[in-house]
């Protein structure tokens, strides 16, 4: 399997990572606490997936006021999320990517 496929699976191949992208796509820029609440999981899980999403430039991490960190989708992240939604629609025949 080419390395690009492995990277794609590593970063976007997890339900929680996709839920984070979905939360950022629907809610816009938000902080870490709100993201944890959006995906209903532990801070460790969100932190791990955000780290990968930021590292591969799907999500942008901005510090505000030197303390609070805000996360938002990059253009690459928006495109990836849209493409994954289209693939989910093709597989399930619906608009609901959680099916």
UniProtKB/TrEMBL annotation:
Residues 1-99 form the HTH arsR-type domain. SUPFAM superfamilies: Winged helix' DNA-binding domain. SMART domains: HTH_ARSR. One of its GO terms (molecular function) is DNA-binding transcription factor activity. This is ArsR family transcriptional regulator.
């Amino acid at each position: 399997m080419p390395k690009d496929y492995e990277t794609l699976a590593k970063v976007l191949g997890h339900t929680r990572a996709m839920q984070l992208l979905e939360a950022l796509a629907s809610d816009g820029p938000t902080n870490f606490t709100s993201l944890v609440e959006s995906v209903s999981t532990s801070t460790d899980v969100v932190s791990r997936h955000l780290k990968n999403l930021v590292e591969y430039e799907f999500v942008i991490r901005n510090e505000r006021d030197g303390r609070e960190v805000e996360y938002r989708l990059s253009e690459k992240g928006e495109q990836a999320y849209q493409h994954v939604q289209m693939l989910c629609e093709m597989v399930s025949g619906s608009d609901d990517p959680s099916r």
